[in-house]
Amino acid sequence: MILIHCPYCDEKRPEIEFANAGQAHVARPLDPSSQSDEEWEAYLFIRANPRGRHHERWRHVHGCGRFFNAVRDTVTDKFETTYKAGEPRR
Amino acid sequence: MSGYRLENGGRIDRSRPVEFSFDGNPYQGFAGDTLASALLANGISLFGRSFKYHRPRGIMAAGSEEPNALISVDRGAGRFTPNLRATGVEIHAGLNAFSQNRWPSLKRDFGAINDRLGMFFPAGFYNKTFMWPRSFWEKLYEPAIRKMAGLGDAPTQEDPDIYASTYAHCDLLIVGAGPAGIDAALEAMGSNKRIILIDEQDELGGGALADPALWPWLERSRKALIDAPNVTILTRTTAFGYYHDNFIGAVQRLTDHMPNNSDSPREKLWRVRAGEVVLAQGAIERPLVFDGNDTPGVMLSSAAKVFANRFGVAVGTSVALMTAHDSGWHDVFALVKAGVGIKAVIDVRTELSSALLDEASRLGINVYLNHSVTGVNGRHRVTSIQICNNDDFVGARIDCDTLLMAGGWTPSVHLWSHSKGSLAWRDDIGAYVPDQPNENARCVGACSGGWDFGSGMIVDVLPTPKDQSRIKAFVDFQNDVTAKDIKLAVREGFRSIEHIKRYTTNGMATDQGKTSNLNGLQIASTALAKPVTDIGLTSFRPPYTPQTFGALAAHAKGALFQPTRTTNIDGWAAENGAVFELVAQWRRARYFPKMGEDMHAAVNRECVAVRSSVGIFDASTLGKIEVVGPDAAEFLNRMYTNPWKALEPGRCRYGLLLKEDGFITDDGVSARLAPDRFHLTTTTGGAARVLNMMEDYLQTEWPDLDVWLTSTTEQYAVIALQGPNARKLLEPLVEGIDLSADAFPHMAIREGTICGIPTRLFRVSFTGELGFEINVPTAYGRAVWEHLMAEGAKFDITPYGTEAMHVLRAEKGFIIVGQDTDGTITPFDAGLDWAAGKKKPDFVGKRSMARPDIVAPGRKQLVGLLTDDPNVVLEEGAQIVADPRQPIPMTMIGHVTSSYWSETLGRSIAFALVAGGHEMMGGMLYIPMPGKTHEAKVSGMVFYDAEGARLHV
């Protein structure tokens, strides 16, 4: 069972306390109504599926409840880093 | 001629005889014996029948790598354990063990015909042969093959044993308590590290248990470790898997070695998080591959030493050794010392150390260098062996009852590989050894590839003058894979060991190829004329040895599998005969049958009571979220489809929640208590999902909004009081709230007290009747409920369950998200477009409602269905077609989502999702069912009181 560092609690906790919340840094457009069908499709459905470094959102759902971002290697399943929501992409 | 108990030696307690049974026959062993050693001492050499060919098999190894001697242990009803290795079962009084995969008996087994037909059962045989006709596979071929080819019988009764589980943390975890593991523990003992030492055997020592010279050291070390306060010793414990971040799963066997079934846990699952892991798993001796190498009496040379020195058992009266490694010679010297008669040593090599040859000569052992065993005589036991010179194939026959094999050593890198540590190939030992770690871990002792028992030569198949395609030289003993099968796989084009493995099943048995993987790899390497490293290595996966489901499940079974959530009123429902159903994790009353009533009758009565007087319903399971803060209204306005900013405090609104893709995910009535405070309700099953979704938007998309979300589902008991007499019943009990129609209209909320208890009183209705939902602090739920029941007697108040609730809401055309929607339904599809605020610039899902696929015609839309025959209640889930006369397979255009008998209307009603349904009003659709095709007219969804006259009173 992986240990994940929650950047808000500043503790490594077992993965069962966390829930994955999909790809990170996919910002909701500020004015969805101005989006073309193609732009909206890209926002809704098109996601990266990298082999290696992947930016993901996680929620410390059975802890502090905060959403945060993480860089995880999809090959080794190792977390490279985690950081608070709103911080720049690492 | 066979095994027997030596006069002296071993770690068994000869003063404590133990009676046990095998295949119904009584035997005697000593305390400290395994089933294998005790039966060998009793002269037993036949332990089972092989998987595919039903060949007689005996003991090959002395430890958990044993592939042949799989047995079942019967400890009474529900306590039947198949596929245990006889080498790992400790005998105790009353042990009741059985051989497997034989009929009618171990000695006379009909299945052995497979062995005679062996040439017809090559690798891939089943895949190739039983292809046609296809329909025969499930009904005929597979059951027949499963019956023939099998391991032990699966238990059929529920396991009455209990299993424990625990988490543990330590600085240092050592797996394996042989000399290397013990040394690691002794070395770390003086520090203040918390140390856990795990070993699968019943006592510490590993390989040292078979080396009497080490016993004084072992005893000193054992005492030191037991006395050390920072060392936890777990024996009879198998570390079965190594997971991320030094998380190790281990199962401790607590009671199986004891005579009686006890009330204490049978096994205990340990989940250990370790700072550092030291793996001292040792190495496993490799069999040699030659014709007849599976005959009972052929075994690993190291095993013979273990049986002699640890258990005081001679594995035979005249023993020969076939070796490619120095270790075999040392084993034989130890056997001579223990009093076992050695007939000959045959070494495939031409040159080896003179020290070994001198010692053999001193002990008077016949030595054959540059020779190989080319055949084994005897069916249920070795009677003699055939040997040949490797160069000229000049042979000889040697009479013996036991043949030992010493093919070199394979480091046990199982857990290392689980941890994703890398491996490096070593040509000199013909094996993979640990290379770079992936966790904070290291290997010590033989599992790291280091040992002091000499060197050897790597051979894939022993030289033989025989036709290689006609011999049975086994590689995987448990899955009956021969060298010939692996060569066939290569001939048929398989190149990767991963494919060869799956085609031949080499290494895929319950032992995961502990004794077969490396031999299989060598044979494939030779056949492909490629180095082993080009062919790859199959992955080891947990568990190291098979573990019981009981241990893995531990307490998580029955009522403890997952929690059952109950409301404060649940106890009343149980005492009053409710029939329950599970909704998400909640236990809800489905209906309250009176004497002699079935569900149908009870639900009809409950529905009529609500429509004619008053019904009472436990709605406590509704999800509730308190939304508080200056931006609360703005937040809800962005989340829900409806407008929220203009909602006045004291009023309620039906909220429809979409996902960003435009599909309905939840709904519920919510109330504004104050400008900055809302009381949201969600569906029973959607509460956690909705809160998570709202937190997501609040935290990550709109962190500028000043809003707090709190789950209050369990803070309130909710009692729905529904029916024309609801106000009359409620009025005298409520203080601080004017219940009159003008002061407290439909879709309003007031705060006050009921029976003296603070309440948030909603005037809402999911039934279409005048209705109230009384929210009180959870602890008071039952008290208020009982008071209402007592006061309501004069109105013949009737408790109703979820089933009546479903019927009542369907009569009014109210949907249930998740039943009438399926995650692909838009507000327009559901006929709820009135709830989607068209003037709002944005809300979650709004943009998607304009996507091309969402506005395209032909989408499935929710409609009402009225069957032509009013007495027919359609099956929920039934498929709908437009034309019943079309050829089969028909085009299905939708399905029934809700369907009930409405006692109030005296007919059946239904909802359905139908492609283009909104355009079909008044048209006929057809529902083909077994025996009859039903006709139904498409209608609106509101079947009762469409104008809402009953609500606004």
UniProtKB/TrEMBL annotation, chain A:
<dbReference type="GO" id="GO:0008115">
    <property type="term" value="F:sarcosine oxidase activity"/>
</dbReference>
<keyword id="KW-0560">Oxidoreductase</keyword>
<dbReference type="GO" id="GO:0046653">
    <property type="term" value="P:tetrahydrofolate metabolic process"/>
</dbReference>
<dbReference type="InterPro" id="IPR038561">
    <property type="entry name" value="SoxD_sf"/>
</dbReference>
<dbReference type="InterPro" id="IPR006279">
    <property type="entry name" value="SoxD"/>
</dbReference>
<dbReference type="Pfam" id="PF04267">
    <property type="entry name" value="SoxD"/>
</dbReference>
<protein>
    <submittedName>
        <fullName>Sarcosine oxidase subunit delta</fullName>
        <ecNumber>1.5.3.1</ecNumber>
    </submittedName>
</protein>
